[in-house]
Amino acid sequence: LQTLQQIIDFMHQGNSPVKETLTRTQENVIKENYLPLWRGVLSIEPAPLSRPKLKMDNQGEILVTDDGTGLADTICKELEQKGYIGRKISLQERHKGKVSGLIILVPGATDADSICSTMELMQYHSTDLNTSTEKPTLLAAITRMGGTFGLDSENNFNPECAAIGGFIKTVDKEWSEVNCRILDIQSDAEITDETVVNIVEELFHNGPLEAGIKDNKVNSLDLNAKPVTEESQSLKSLPHGNETIVISGGARGITAEIAIELASEYGTNLLLLGRSPVPDSEPGWLPATGNAVDIKQAIIQNSDQAMTPREVEAKAREIMAAREIRHNLERARAYGVKVLYKSADIRNIDQVSQAMDEARKELGPITGIIHGAGVLADKLFADKTSEQFHDVYSTKVSGLKSLLQATSDDELKVLVTFSSTTARFGRKGQSDYAAANEVLNKMARIESVKRQGCKVVSLNWGPWDGGMVTPQLRKLFEQEGIGVIPLQEGARQLINELKSESDVEVVILGSEPPGQVKATNTQTTQPGSTRSPLHLAYERAVSIKDLPVLNSHIMNGKAVLPAAIMIEWFVHGALHNNPGLVFHGVDNFRIYKGVIVDADEVLNIQILAGDLIEENDQLIVPVELKQGQTLHAGATIVLDHTHSQKPAPRVTSEKGKYSQSLEEIYDNGLLFHGPDLQGITSIIGYSDSGMTGTAKTAPKPSSWMTQPIRKNWLADPLLIDSAFQLMILWSFENSGSGSLPTGLNGYRQFNHASSTSEIEIRIEILSHNKHAIEATVEFVDNKDELIARIEKYECVVDGSLNSAFKNNRLIDETQS
């Protein structure tokens, strides 16, 4: 199994001709012991405020396709205002001359033919766009899905407009010299002169790849982890016995496993639609064994005429496919359901309608559709033919249209489309597949609005594992950031999705480790680094209003961004483009300059993240926190495929008496921390060798921030900050002077702290002098299990901090 076409064939065909039948008990054991998959959903976020701009060659023309709305003319005029040469062209026009950019205005009436024409126009100019050696060229698509890529469920749009975005995402992977952009805007009537200025201005930014303009504000798409939990289960009515679910994609491989899981979970009857012929009964001369060699030998011996090796191979595959279909139908029927298999071209409405009519008579009313059919024709974009495009596109898009048309009078409870991570991220060689699946995503969006009582979801699956994916292919997928999904786990995930809340576009990645998935081409350079440049991961506003927790972190009359929040933001920045990985630790965290905020000040802070690197058997992402050109902090975030095994604690609890009471430490000037950050709950012990105390876990991020990045913390900033506070107390007790963190060599997190229990923080002093302290810090739960460890915590000791700590009320200079 070496090519992508073989992978998709295998996905729909299964991995063995005959499988031993599983008992109900065996299948339940598998079902109950599946591993969790990574699940993500899209959200609209403000685009970074400061991004690098393109400086293109103004000698070549920037071609703008005419969508018939007049927008092409206004864009060309705005380009001229910026010193560029804009030229309006049709999709069929082939311009000869120097070209430095191509902007495709996707018509509202886009269909398969106009999409194919767009592909051919892009191919024609591929050489022009890829031969510039001095300045970048531009390839952009402008769609009209409301400025939110259809995430605004109330917006009505043509879902086929999204196909061109699928092209652009793939070309972005194939044409390294071209700056690719996808802009989504509001409808024609809402486009003003200001909007046109904003469109052209945005086109000359170096990323993100996808940006939406709505109400003249620029937004980007963010993919965030969102697992299905019991709390997210919906009460929507789902299909049950004597109702029928229609599944396209055949009775082998993935769709077969889905069918069997549905039969087991809901007891629904099933109509399976596939390309393979309905299996006939086998001749008596065929051996019962599934051994391919024996089958081929029997074919040769019982043939009436001479057969070529290729003909024998084809006949053997046909027999084994028929056996697998029969076997899978029997597996589903073992759960007491009725199953009908029909051979049909999913694109042919007459064939599909006929199969549906038979199903209604034999099985019962149709209440669910799962569209799993698909084909691949992998080839680089510049070499893709129109025939290949139409074959791939029509199987997905026309296939879904046929299914919806044939069930227009049925009351559906479930509508599931099988999309692909190729639609979300793009993938070399799969431009048509990306286009088709992106359209499925948007068709699902529209159907979800139409069908309020129906569970509608478009699952952007990563590749499925059937046992035959070679180590080389698995490594390829991992390098591209796509995990491999085991059959049983994927089938069970579908059941979970049917029960979950109303997410429509859902990305599912396997538990296998993904590599980096780039979501933006925004880049800045990491100073003094030999590694690849850092990318702008995201931007945050830092002010008292945006981060109310700063009211509890004031020194010398000014708010200071806590180091623990810097660490949290670094972790999010590292995970931002690496879905499926988990946070494991932080290395070489250093604070170069504190982030200090006046009462009425708003700072724009940038979090930068580099490419995922495999180094010393670790997956690492370099990160920085900057404000403009000022570098405030840096670190290396360590990611992993799963949470690591917990080692035993090695720091012992201190039992010596501490001189201060718990009530005094926050009131007598030792600690400057206000109510939100008063995390220490007890002091267990103190000695010259260390200190031990307990602390509570952090509240939800929304308690500290008006616009939290996530619903839950990745690390626990209150526990981490409480450890720093204990170090301040040790410093005062030992030398009479306060201390502040400057960095740490390593932090490893082995588990999340329970929000219902206090955590013991154990500190062991490694070395200290008048000006600095080094220590090991461990976080241990009430079962004496290690939650996290800090190796070589470093802090500066200075007597001048004492007065700064006491001055912990914010000075509002506007009131003075």
Short description:
This protein is α/β, with parallel strands linked by helices. It has a 15-stranded mixed sheet with strand order 3-2-4-5-6-7-8-1-17-14-13-12-9-10-11, with helices on both faces. Strands 18, 19, 22, 24, 25, 26, 27, 28, 29, 30, 31, 32 and 33 form a 13-stranded antiparallel sheet that branches. The protein has a 3-stranded antiparallel sheet with strand order 20-21-23. Helix 9 (292-302) crosses helix 10 (309-333) and helix 11 (349-362) runs parallel beside helix 12 (386-406).
Percent range for helical residues?
25-40%
Radius of gyration, taken over Cα atoms and rounded to an integer in Å: 30 Å
The count of helical stretches stands at 20
CATH topology of the domain at 523-815: Thiol Ester Dehydrase, Chain A
Average pLDDT, all residues = 86
The tally of strands reads 33
CATH class of the domain at 523-815: Alpha Beta
Uncertain stretches of 5 or more adjacent residues: 1-35, 511-531
Strand content range = 25-35%
- Kindly report the name of the CATH homologous superfamily of the domain at 523-815: Polyketide synthase dehydratase
Order of strands, widest sheet: 3-2-4-5-6-7-8-1-17-14-13-12-9-10-11
CATH architecture of the domain at 523-815: Roll
The main sheet comes to: 15 strands, mixed
- Shape annotation: globular
Q: Terminal Cα separation, in Å? A: 74 Å
What does this protein look like?
With 816 residues, the protein is α/β, with parallel strands linked by helices. Among the domains are: 46-222, Rossmann fold, CATH 3.40.50.720; 523-815, Polyketide synthase dehydratase (Thiol Ester Dehydrase, Chain A, Roll), CATH 3.10.129.110. 30% of the residues lie in helices and 26% in strands. It has a 15-stranded mixed beta sheet, with helices on both faces. α8 links the parallel β9 (244-248) and β10. α8 (253-266) crosses α16 (487-499), α9 crosses α10 and α17 packs antiparallel against α19. The longest helix has 25 residues, at 309-333. The radius of gyration is 30 Å and the shape is globular. It starts with a helix and ends in a 10-residue tail after the last helix. The model is unreliable at 1-35 and 511-531 (pLDDT under 50).
